Amino acid sequence: MSSFRFERAENFNPTLLGRSLCMDFDAVVSAFEADAEKRTKGALSSYIYDMPQYPGDPVEGGINYARYVKLPTSFIPQKQPPLLKQFASVVKKYIRAESSFFDLGPGPNWSVTRNTIPALRVLNPLAYFAVDIELTFTEEACRVIEREFPDMKVQAIAIDFHSKVLPYPQSGVSVVWYPGSTLGNLPSLPGQTFIENKFVADHLKLLHRTNGFSQENKESQHYLVILMDSRKDDVNSMINLYVSPEARECFLSILFKLKRDLRANTFKPESFVYNPQWNEQSSAVEHVFTALETQEFTITDCFTNREAVIKIYEGENYVLANSIKPSCEEMRAMLINSGWEPLESLRDTEGQFHIHLALAST
Question: Which CATH homologous superfamily contains domain 76-234+325-360?
């Protein structure tokens, strides 16, 4: 059976794909503002993981990302799992067994097996919830967990956790397990530091709440465990993470998704050069696309029938994606500013990552 939603390119229909999986119309408008000082930098970051929807579809970011994380130069599968497992024992000191475990963006089978299962064995929660915008991703994670923990309550939740609060756990104690790079891919505005990044702060504030969570109920406790890439003194070491063909193709896939989802039929995605650059002020590797020619094309939001004319200028740089890498101290300050009380933190021995445990402040 084919894994594609559509049999051929001419059958592709963005409305059937769904709003949450389609490239956002307003995000594209903000990314290509004529005035560079008004552009949202990294507005299209979340689309580097998208998959092809019909045979021959050039939107293959997710396929290339799966290849990228297997490279010897990728620290994600090598360094993250032991740090997460080690930190689970730290978390256990604060959280009783009757908790609900929210796994945000659990990822593919290997990620659930290596990043989530060891923590579940330590924390022994009452219930496990796989949370992602794509139901099939959450269902796959749940199948893996059900095989390992047949007595645990397991549920798939398909929501955009950037815009909607998590459900309130019956146990009253919740752990938001957030080891992925989603927060690190959030947008930024020109001239702002990481601490000033409203997109990150708003996202953390949203995770601070659950649907029905009462700050007045002293028995209710809402914890966050978040792992982040760390900024390094060697700038080239951060940039070099994204120079492999597999990494480059993840980001270039964004342009093909724009053309596909927003019916930009005259847009030429191949007319760009991609280069990652470090921005010291925003603590981010910015994924820069330089236009090789001037283009003018129309994008269409199939859900609202809105249209906009986008003009791209030859030689102009557009930051379409971010890989934010704050220091441990910056992340701690951001948590405090977003309504979290930092409890513990840990870094790996090579300084590639830092991980934090925080409690929702009352």
Answer: Vaccinia Virus protein VP39 (3.40.50.150)
